[in-house]
């Protein structure tokens, strides 16, 4: 049930991001889609993906807001700050509500939710031959998952570097040669 509500919220926020007129509100709506996806990962019992999604979403949202804040401020200029404040508080309230629902569903600390952990502990050292069981789980049993998370983080870092790079300037000698 919670997952269906989250999916509907993500679709609604994506439509808002497409249809809204100013760029800053669109960026905030896209950020709410990413945070709802983070909550969906928590509902689906994938906390490692939720953490990765949260880190990437926060970094991307900060960079996109920084990139758009100087270019697009019609709501602040027009004096519609009340609408901005109310919509921001509404998004925060919805996010906190779904966070509460998702965190309430998580099992207590130390209580097992799946039998896979038992298999890792019993057969991990004999199947992998590794001394460090944590490294064996990360690199042998869940290698594709680890590769996917590393790819997401690498892509986020490259995207951040592309957005924050400074445009190159030609040296004075190169300008004179070209002119």
Structure description:
The protein is mainly alpha-helical. It has a domain of 105 residues. 79% of the residues lie in helices and 0% in strands. The protein has 9 helices and no strands. Helix 1 runs antiparallel to helix 2, helix 6 crosses helix 7 and helix 7 packs across helix 8. The model has no long low-confidence stretch (mean pLDDT 78).
Average pLDDT for all residues: 78
Oligomer: single chain
| Category from helices, strands and their pairing | mainly alpha
In one word, what is the shape?
Answer: flat
Count of alpha and pi helical runs: 9
Strand content: under 5%
The percent range for helix content is over 70%
Question: What are the segments in which pLDDT stays under 50 over at least 5 consecutive residues?
Answer: none
Helix and strand run: HHHHHHHHH
Largest sheet: none
Count of strand segments:
0
Distance between the termini: 66 Å
Short description:
With 179 residues, the chain is mostly helical.
SSE topology sketch:
Elements: H1 2-19, H2 23-43, H3 47-69, H4 74-77, H5 81-105, H6 116-128, H7 133-141, H8 143-164, H9 172-178
Which characteristics define this entry?
single chain, 179 residues, mainly alpha, 79% helix
């Amino acid at each position: 049930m919670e997952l269906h509500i989250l999916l509907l919220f993500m679709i609604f926020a994506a439509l808002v991001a497409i249809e809204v007129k100013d760029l800053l509100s669109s960026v905030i709506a896209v950020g709410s889609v990413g945070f709802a996806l983070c909550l969906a990962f928590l509902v689906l019992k994938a906390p490692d993906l939720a953490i990765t999604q949260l880190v990437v979403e926060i970094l991307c949202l900060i960079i996109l807001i920084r990139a758009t804040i100087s270019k697009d401020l019609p709501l602040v200029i027009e004096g519609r700050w009340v609408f901005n404040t109310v919509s921001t508080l509404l998004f925060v309230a919805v996010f906190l509500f779904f966070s509460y629902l998702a965190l309430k569903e998580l099992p207590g600390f130390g209580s097992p939710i799946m039998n896979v952990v038992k298999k890792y502990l019993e057969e991990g050292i004999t199947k992998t031959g590794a001394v460090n069981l944590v490294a064996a789980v990360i690199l042998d049993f869940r290698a594709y998952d680890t590769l996917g998370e590393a790819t997401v983080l690498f892509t986020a870092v490259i995207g951040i570097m592309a957005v924050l790079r400074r445009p190159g300037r030609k040296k004075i000698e190169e300008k004179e040669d070209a002119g």
